[in-house]
Design a protein that fits this description.
disordered C terminus, ABC transporter transmembrane region fold, 329 residues, 10 helices
Length: 329
């Protein structure tokens, strides 16, 4: 395996056609999962809108009957939304379980075809069958989350524009700023994630190698150095992820407040309507921030996906010059 310093670039783009091929056997489950998730998002628009009407009914008209009816509508919508998400999460577990099984069987067949694997290479295979394979679950999760966030963002923008059109010219520049801040931090975070994975694989091999030299008094020192490198990689990644997530998250919190101020200054004085504007603007910024963050998730799994396909594509022993299994990308 290459040292961390030798890996300066991320792997290439995700092989979407091959990923689609792996997902094809579970496409029915994927459609059901995404349908339930996006349905829950659309139902989730009811509470903020109904809450605004409820507050106006109580404050402006003191209409308790209407308020009670709206409260029941809000409770029902929240219940339906929750059930939809529970069913979607259950479908996700079923989908990724089937995906893991298919992927690991293909990886196993690839390893069997490999012409030669030495003990050090073999000691690192376990991590590929566990941690690397499970990154494919992230791809499924991103498909589900991406659909939800896109629907949440688009639907909230439309409803917010209808409710208070003057908020859109203020919201748009803040969304652009959120995009810029987040994207600038994603490439370093993706590189840090790749380096962490390389260090973990190196540690997996080091365990086997150093345990075979247990009588060597230098063995604990060498393994300790490997573990320290993992620690450094994890801390570095953690800081970059914190800046990336919290930086854009702070802008996402500021946006709804700005939307309410604009709505108030442009003639919206009903308390309930301002509450609805705030809640809808929250959904706009949360949805957009989540969509931007998804690209970071895609970048951080590229290395593991490439390593899994490297096992699947292991050359046949009948080839004239079959290379050894690659240990990194």
């Amino acid at each position: 395996m290459a040292d961390v310093g030798e890996s300066e670039d991320l792997p290439g783009r995700l092989p979407w056609r091959r990923l689609a091929g792996l997902l094809r056997p579970i496409r029915g489950g994927l459609v059901a999962m995404v349908g339930l998730s996006t349905g829950g998002v659309l139902v989730g628009l009811v509470p903020p809108l109904a809450l605004g009407v409820l507050v106006n009914a109580l404050v402006e008209r003191n209409d308790r009957a209407e308020a009670a009816l709206l409260a029941g509508l809000i409770a029902s919508a929240i219940l339906i939304e929750t059930v939809a998400y529970v069913l979607s999460d259950g479908m996700y577990a079923r989908n990724v379980g089937r995906l893991y099984r298919s992927l690991r069987l293909q990886m196993f067949e690839g390893v069997r075809r490999a012409p030669s694997i030495d003990d050090e290479e073999r000691s690192g295979l376990a991590s590929r069958f566990i941690s690397d394979a499970e990154t494919f679950g992230v791809v499924v999760s991103l498909l589900d989350s991406g659909s939800m966030l896109l629907v949440e963002f688009a639907s909230a923008v439309v409803v917010l524009g209808l409710l208070s059109p003057w908020t859109i010219p203020v919201v748009a520049p803040e969304l652009a700023l959120t995009w810029i801040v987040t994207r600038r931090m994603q490439e370093p975070a993706a590189l840090a994630s790749q380096r962490r994975q390389e260090e973990l694989e190196h540690m997996t091999r080091s365990v086997t190698r150093e345990l075979s030299r247990r009588d060597d008094p230098e063995s604990p020192i060498r393994f300790g150095a490997v573990v320290d490198r993992v620690l450094g990689a994890e801390i570095h990644l953690g800081w970059l992820q914190a800046v990336n997530m919290q930086g854009s998250g702070g802008l996402a919190k500021l946006g709804p407040i700005a939307a309410v101020v604009v709505a108030a200054f442009t003639g919206t004085h009903l308390i309930g309507t301002l509450i609805a504007v705030y809640l809808l603007a929250q959904r706009v910024f949360w949805g957009f921030d989540g969509l931007v963050d998804l690209s970071l998730g895609l970048q951080t799994v590229r290395g593991a996906v490439a390593r899994c396909f490297a096992l699947i594509d292991a050359p046949s022993p009948t080839t004239d010059q079959a290379p050894r299994l690659p240990t990194t990308t």
